[in-house]
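forwarding from the other thread:

> can someone predict this with E8B?

sure thing
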Amino acid sequence: ILGGYEAKPHLRPYMASLQLDGQHICGGFLIAEQWVLSAAHCTEETDGKVFQVLLGAHSLTEPEPHKRLYRVRAQIPHPGSNIHNNKDDLLLLQLEEKAELNAHVQVLPFQREDRDVAADTVCEVAGWGTISHSGHRPDKLYQVERPVISRDVCNHRTRHDRTITEKMMCTDSRRKDTCKGDSGGPLVCNGVAEGVVTAGSRVCGNYKKPAIYTRIAPYVAWIDSVMASAAG
Ligand SMILES: CC(C)CC(=O)Nc1cccc(-c2cccc(CN)c2)c1
């Protein structure tokens, strides 16, 4: 997160850190007791290894009550996701067991109605992604508020030049922005997850490259069917 600030501990009890060998790779969030939603491109550099999911954390390294690392039973990327574009950039992770819910571990509801969030709506995004252009990785969760920008503005020739589909949304990226390691985290508008951070052009804090999110509502049928099929 660039241009943001340290989050108040445990006010985002749905936040997940996707880790490999104890290292934070991407964000994610709890959508059901045994399911985390994240971004498919987070598996690009994992060389087939399966993530572990840290829940209930504020600091990545310090011991905290209710902080717990879960094994993953299954990792299911959306069938349409690929490394060449940001399309269908979603990843469902089934935990080995149901997460123990408490004050620090909670599910976040996601938007089920497929209607665009109005431009200028101020949403919030949090993550353990880099907090400086030099790539400093924070130990604590950071957050930032960002206004939604219209798809027409985001698709302008000088911005993302018609690559933003109706299944994506954008926020202004002038100074304050998402960055490496924030992928997979939720864009929360009025307390509801509307989008999932995707890397897009993989630049951060440049107003010419607004932040891109995969909208969740268009994927409700896929999410529900995967969770139903693997239930139990
Ligand atoms: C395996 C993955 C972690 C590889 C990856 O995603 N790299 C990478 C590098 C630079 C910026 C970003 C990035 C992420 C989220 C939002 C944005 C843009 N605001 C950029 C992402």
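The mean pLDDT is 97. thats all i got for now
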